[in-house]
Amino acid sequence: MTESPAEFSAAETALLARFFTNMDRPVFALRNLPEVVKGALFSRYSRTEKSLRRVLLEEFINEPDSGFAQLAGAEAGADDTVAVRRAEEFYERVLVGYGDDSVAELAGAHVALERVSTLAAKALEDSRIGISPLEKSTRYVRFDRPGPDGQHLYYRGPELAHPAYGPACDALFQAYSRLIEPLTQSIRERFPLEAGETDRAWKSATRAKALDMLRGLLPAGTLTNLGLYGNGRAFEYLITKLAASELAECRGLAGDLHRELNLVIPSFVKRAVDERYGAPAAERIARARSQTARLAQRLGRPSTGPSVTLLEHDPDAERRVVAAVLFPHSDAGWKEQEEDATTVLETILGDRTNRRQRPPRALEHAVYNFEIVANFAAYRDLHRHRMLTQDRQLLGTSLGYDVPAGLAELGMEAEFRSAIDAAAAAHGRIEPDAGPALAQYVVPLAFRLRWYFRVNLREIYHLCELRTTPQGHPDYRWVAQEMFRLVAEVHPRLARYAKFVDMGPGDELERRRSERRLDEKLSALDSNQSVADRPQRDRVP
C-alpha cells in the first residue's frame, strides 16, 4: 500500500519529508519533531479523517499561530525554550479541544538525574507503567571516587545534620575504598587468567566480583545517577507522588523534575503540582500515609535470616490457565473451557528453546503472593521487575545483615563487619531524633528488609529465568530460586515449562562467561567492520 501520489505536491513532499521516515507508505515514524508537537499532533489525529501528514501540514506547519517553524528548529538560532513557551497557548488549545489524559502517553521525554541518593532512586524507579529507568551499576562502577568537592558521594541534605550521620557514612566509604584493591588482587590470584581469555575480560570479571562483594558497605544515602524515559502522563503522576514523599530530597526532586519537564513537555505535566489537581493529590497521599502508619503494628522482632515465603496461591490456577488458553479460539463461555491441562500446557509451552520466547498471557491467571526478607542490595535488583505488585517496609537494622560468602577466607570479613556494625550503631542514634524514614540514609545495603511481591506466573517465568542465570549476583539468585521452588511445589505442571530457570550453584566468578561472550561479539563486530572497509573487489560474494 502507498499514499495517493496526488495527496501532496512536490513542494509539500519536500517540506514534510524532514519529519517522517517515508512519504509513500502507510507505516512511518516521526522524526525531528519536539515532544509537545507529537503529543498535540496525535491528539488532533484521533479526531479527524485526515492523514497524519496532512494534519501536520495544514494545522501545524501552515498555521501561523502555532509557532511551528521556530519550535521545529527551522529558524536558525532559535531558542527551543522560548519557542515552546511561545507555542504553548496554541498547543494547549489543541489538546483541550481534541484530547484527553491518554494523549499524554504519546509524548515523552528523557531526563537525567545526577547525584541523587539510592533511596531517592528507588522512589524515582517505583512507577510500574510509563517510566523506563536505568541506574548506575554497583557491579561495574566504583563508588569511592570523590565528588568535585573532594568528599565522599552520599546525600547531605540539611535534614540530616545529625552529628552521627556524616562520620558513619565516611567510615563506610573508607572501608569500601580500602578493601577494593586488596580484594580484587585476592580474587585475581584465586581466579587466574585462563587460556583463550582476554586480559580485558578477565580484569572486568574479577573487578565486578570485588565490587559485588563490597556493595553491601555502601549506605542508602550513596549518590547515584540515573536516566528516565517516560511519557507525559507517567511523569505527571511521578511528580505528584514525589511531592508527597516523607523525604525532603524527593520533594525537592519533584520540583526539579517539574521545572525541567515544563521546558520540553509542558502541557503534559502542568497539573502535577497545580493547586487544583496535583497539590491536593499530594496532600492526600501524605495524609493517608501518616494515618495508616499510626494503625500499623511495629513489633520490633529480630530476623531469623533471609527468607522467601509463599503467602498465597490459587489452588484452581491450572483450570484458569487452561480456560484462558482455550477461550480466544472457542465459541463457548469461560466456564465451558475444559481440556487436559498437560495437553494444553505442552501445546503452548513445550517447544520453548530459550527464555526470550515468552509464555502467553494466559499464565497471568495464576497468581502468587510472596513475602521476602533479603538485603537491600538484592531488593534494588529485583525492584526493577515492574510487571507485578510490590511494596517494601522501611530500611532499618533490626533484620540483620548479610556478609558476602568468601570474605572470611580472604581475610576481610572482620573489617567489613566492623564498618557495618558502626553504621548500625549510628542508625540507633539517628532514628530517635530524625525518625525512621530519614534514618534509612545511613543504613548500608547489606542490611535486610522485608517486602512483598504479588506476581503472576508469566512474570515468574521471566523473573526466575532471568535472575537465576549463573552470572547473576548470588543474593538475588537465591531469592529467585526460592520463589520458583515454592511455585513448583504447589503447581508442578505449570512450573515445569520454565526450563531455563537455573537451580544450580551459579558461577564462582559470575561475570567470566558474560565477559567472554562480550569479547566474541566485539570480535565479530570488528570482523564485519574489516569486511565493510575492504575494497568492493576483495569482498567474498
Characterization of the model:
The chain is of the alpha+beta class. The protein folds into 3 domains: about 10-100, no CATH class; about 110-295, Alpha-Beta Plaits, CATH 3.30.70.3180; about 305-400 and about 445-495, Gyrase A, domain 2 (2-Layer Sandwich). Helix content is about 45%, strand content about 10%. It has 21 helices and 7 strands. The strands form 2 sheets. Strands 4-5-7-6 form a 4-stranded antiparallel β-sheet. Helix 2 (about 35-45) packs parallel to helix 5 (about 80-100), helix 8 runs antiparallel to helix 21 and helix 9 (about 230-245) packs antiparallel against helix 10 (about 250-260). The longest helix is centred in the first third of the chain and has 26 residues, at about 165-190. The radius of gyration is 27 Å and the shape is globular. The two termini are about 35 Å apart.
